[in-house]
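yo

u said u wanted the structure for the complex thing, so here. seqs first:
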Amino acid sequence: MTRFERAIYNFLNARGREIMKCLIATLCADDPAIISRVRIQRVILRTEKAIAKMPLFYFVVLKIGVYLLEYAIPPLSWKIRPFTSMNLDQRLEYLNTWSSSRFYYKRMILKLLISLCLPRLYSEKRLLLSIGFERALQGRTRKRWSTAPL
Amino acid sequence: MVDGSTLREHIRENFDVVIVGSGAGGAVVAKELAEGGMRVALVEEGPAFAPQDHRDMAVDAIYRMYRDRGFTTTFGKPAIPIPMGRVLGGTTAINSGTCFRTPSKIFRHWNEELGLHELNEAEFQPIFDRVEREINVEPSDFAVMSRANTIFHELLQNRGTPGKPLRRNIRKCDGCGYCCYGCATGAKQSTDVSYVPKAIRAGATVYTNCTVEKFLIKGRRVHGLRGRFTDLDYANTGYTLEINAPVVVVSGGTIPTPQLLRDNGIAVENWNLGRHLTIHPTTKVYAEFDEVINGWEGTPQAYYLDLHEKDGIMFEGIFVPPDVAAMMVPFVGRRLNEFMRNYKHMAAFGLLISDISQGRVVKMPFLGTTVLYNLVPEDVEKIRKGIAFLARVFLEGGAKRVYTLLHGFSEINNAKDLERLENARVRAEDIEGAAFHPLGTCRMAKSQKHGVVDTSHRVFGWEGIYVCDGSVIPTSLGVNPQETIMAFATRFAGIVLGKKITD
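structre next:
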């Protein structure tokens, strides 16, 4: 890992990465068919890289969002235990309360986190192949270029 | 072409014209003026990519080619992402390639109600002809259309209200389905493969990876600009560009342009600067069928149904690869898995509305350039109506279920759900979508009281500075605007050259 990558990796501390890992696992309901097809550390690293290059506002919101998800207690969130200490069904129910909340900004924070994690999860080739997206192996086009048009 | 990311020297040059931005406005002006014999410099903030460079997944292409890594978003209810290109070709390099001429109704509105008689429909027709020849606009071929489009075509035919294939700027499109993430075959005639190479052949100099920050100003005359070169991560390389030119054209796009003017103290006294923003809010509906659709195979946006005249709604095909789709799915956990597992059975269709809501581009501490935009109830109602229409077409056409991005109506399974949607009162913040056509923040007008530029694109009260991009379009169009912007740019080039440019 280069110094640059290490710096990016430090976006989240070990605890933060644990929360992200737990969030990604929860988003796909710990489904072994999915988890076995992805390299979860790679997904987290790519997510962190993406976050690190975000405009400052999103960077801050996402960082707060990760910890809010974990530690928010009533009245912000109707739970006492940290997100990572819950079992799968509790975590799923908890995320569902966020995603179906009438409170718009709560939904938005979750949406922001999802919009960073899930695209990286679903760009893992083995997972894409398993849902029938063979383009993941073929590449975008079979056309071969000899010279650049520009 | 000068690649600013690898350049290791300061540059100071003199030109007749310098243009900021290489999208639908800037690239067209550059080509027309260079062919007209002027010494032209075109400065682009993003990098240049050749078609064969586009090999990555959609989500990585967004990260590589989109402004703010794809996170340009409105603040308001709802928050609406506005994808914009930060790459040679601007947003034309990342759009679907859909081309529409400006609707007659819009020309009438500009002429009769805004008094912009110079924007005459009859005079624009030969300009449209010329633009369409340059970018090879042709109707989409059913043979390379995504099944998500053709299935909707069949359903509309069964209802007796067929739509039409969209006209697109393509040459030998093989339907790889990645139009919005950099065309890997060079089929899409975005300005980086159509206008920019012609501008270079005519003698224009193109600087990429150069962020323009300062205009050179004397009194109320702009006579050049200063920029800084950046590497591929947009970090400064430490080298600068300074260009002196009597004509400076700002074509940075509807969101960056007013901010660039404001940062330089240009037109700051003009109340209209940064206001009147319209964005054509869009959303889409997924429908699950028994058949395998593989909607990602083929052109994703190739078919449309125009209800603009009647309802102010335009329905256009849309389908995104799974990595992008995953972030839009309205579920988490097992239902998300199920949705993605069935993604190959999904069709999708989108809608865009001609918005009467208006936003603003402002600069805020900590946030930088910020877009403020709230959907007014009339627009919310249009979107709800559009979603309900698509859901009805799909359900009555045999879809097993329909998924919407409307909070509280994520899944529509039967007529009862549909009826509930059709009678629902929806809040703006319940809508999830995107917007692809920001327009109007430096709009053209007869006087300074109503707009930022006059009908020759000159900023009111200033000399030597012109604006030519989506920001000058006076009102929302209701259709994809790239051809309109290109036509405006061609007309503007004619004004600078002192002759009419036609086919």
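Residues 377-396 of chain B form the longest helix (20 residues). Chain B touches chain A through 60 residues (CB under 8 Å).
cya
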